[in-house]
Write a structure and sequence with these properties.
The chain folds into three domains: about 5-60, 2-Layer Sandwich (Phosphorylase Kinase, domain 1), CATH 3.30.200.20; about 65-190, Transferase(Phosphotransferase), domain 1, CATH 1.10.510; about 190-420, Alpha-Beta Complex (Maf protein). The protein is about 40% helix and about 20% strand. Strands 9, 10, 11, 12, 13, 14 and 15 form a seven-stranded mixed sheet that branches. A three-stranded antiparallel sheet has the order 1-3-2, with helices on one face. The chain has 14 helices and 15 strands. The structure holds inosinic acid. Inosinic acid (IMP) binds near residues 255 and 256.
Length: about 425
């Protein structure tokens, strides 16, 4: 037919669990196709969808040829188009569609018609808070790229928005509220950036290996980690996160649990390390045949709305007869992960990071953020973990990917540690 079309295919993300990734790609493909269709019904010009294959995560749609609003503002100062953009956003919001990424690059003028493109991050919502998110994204694009036209652009945008959307006042009020509460502090890059509350540079390095491979940035946070006493690492991490109350931050607590010592040092590992050290541990285990041990990690993540979720992981293994290796920190020279014959201290940073309790907990958190965080920034929708409620944490939403529980010891010769490396995680 000689028609020019666009094929949009959502690519596989190798670092996500394959089933989860397939589900997310399926859902987002359908959601995008539906949003493109609904936008047109709402009176917003958008590319026509010709073909949708949710299993293959593909959409074939009309190609819109023209010039992007970004260039039109930069080169021709076409501020008048901002009123049209406001009108479009108002129509979308009035129809229960939140675009998710309405930057000036996602509007194209073709002939006399301005088109809205890229509904890949769109979702259905009539919440003024979600509508405010759209307004914020656009406002930020204007501030960053078209600052000389900012005032006038915003004025026209709001005029257009109020003209087409009866709920504009509530959405604008939410925008002011969210901006003043610091919900949107900083730039959009923060969406894929977390800060770690810890004075331990080894933890930062290990978690950064995993974060960077998954497209995230991890930086140190200002502030000290509160250390409370508890038998439960998740509770310790949760208390530290609550005390710090920094949106977009994580705090990690870990420990080494030795079976023949009834789980000692466990949550007291830091103290044990600074008093008896790993040599003292080896002394305690002289002549002990049962060498089974495991490391556990609990990461508490505070989202932009201040909700806290805890992700946990463990790596099973054995206590060596003698220390070996110079890498890592803490008890690394005496811990041999199951399935390996070397201690953590004999591995390089990358190798340890991917199989360690901390690395696994980190990848669980990031996979969860990828799946549920999305454009809305603050993930939600998970029910609080029951243990958390039992522990009196019901005021917070606490999600534990795998609760830390008693048991879980490998037999001394079993090799579960290696198989615990989540599939497909290596970059
Ligand atoms: P915390 O999480 O800061 O309370 O510290 C836990 C303590 O457990 C550390 O000081 C280490 O002694 C030990 N530990 C935790 N994770 C590791 C690890 O990956 N390698 C070696 N020792 C660890």
């Amino acid at each position: 037919m000689g028609m020019r079309v666009v094929l949009k295919r959502r690519t596989v993300r190798p670092y996500l669990n394959p089933q989860l990734d397939a589900r997310v790609r399926y859902r987002r493909t359908l959601r995008e196709a539906a949003a493109l269709h609904d936008a047109k019904l709402a009176g917003v010009p958008a590319p026509t969808v010709y073909f949708v294959d949710p299993m293959g995560a593909e959409i074939i749609m009309e190609m819109i040829e023209g010039r992007r609003l970004k260039e039109l503002l930069e080169e021709e100062r076409r501020v008048d188009l901002m009123r049209v953009v406001g009108d479009y956003l108002g129509r979308l919001h009035g129809s229960g569609i939140v675009h998710g990424d309405p930057t000036t690059s996602n509007f194209v003028l073709s002939g006399e018609v301005l088109y809205a493109l890229d509904f890949g991050l769109s979702f259905r919502s009539r919440s003024p808070r979600d509508q405010a998110t759209d307004l914020h994204v656009l406002k930020e694009a204007l501030e960053s790229y078209h600052s000389d036209l900012f005032e006038e652009s915003m004025k026209l945008l709001i005029e257009g928005y109020a003209g087409s959307f009866g709920g504009s006042r509530e959405a604008l009020a939410w925008l002011r509220r969210l901006e003043s509460s610091g919900r949107y502090r900083g730039d959009r890059a923060l969406e894929r950036s977390l800060c770690l509350i810890s004075g331990n540079r080894h933890k930062l390095q290990e978690m950064s290996v995993v974060a960077e491979a998954m497209g995230w940035r991890l930086r140190p946070c200002e502030g000290r980690k509160l250390e409370v006493q508890s038998d439960d690492l998740a509770e310790i991490a949760l208390a530290a996160a609550r005390a710090a109350a920094i949106p977009g931050s994580i705090v990690e607590d870990s420990g080494l649990f030795v079976r023949s010592l009834g789980g000692f040092p466990g949550p007291y590992s830091s103290y044990a390390m600074s008093t008896i050290g790993y040599r003292g541990l080896l002394k305690l285990m002289e002549g002990v045949e049962d060498r089974a041990a495991r490391f556990e990690s609990a990461i508490a993540y505070t989202d932009q709305a201040g909700r806290i979720r805890v992700f946990t992981a463990r790596v099973c293994g054995a206590i060596a007869e003698e220390p070996a290796g110079t890498g890592g920190f803490g008890f690394d020279p005496v811990f041999i992960p199951a399935g390996y014959s070397r201690t953590f201290a004999e591995m390089d940073l990358r190798e340890k990071s991917w199989i360690s309790h901390r690395g696994i907990a980190m990848s669980r958190l990031l996979r969860w953020l990828e799946a549920y965080g999305g454009a809305r920034g603050a993930p939600r929708g998970r029910r609080p973990h029951r243990d958390a409620e039992a522990r009196g944490a019901s005021a917070q939403t606490l999600y534990s990917a795998r609760p830390i529980a008693a048991g879980g010891w490998p037999g001394p010769t079993r090799t579960r540690g290696a198989s615990r490396t989540p599939r497909g995680r290596r970059p």
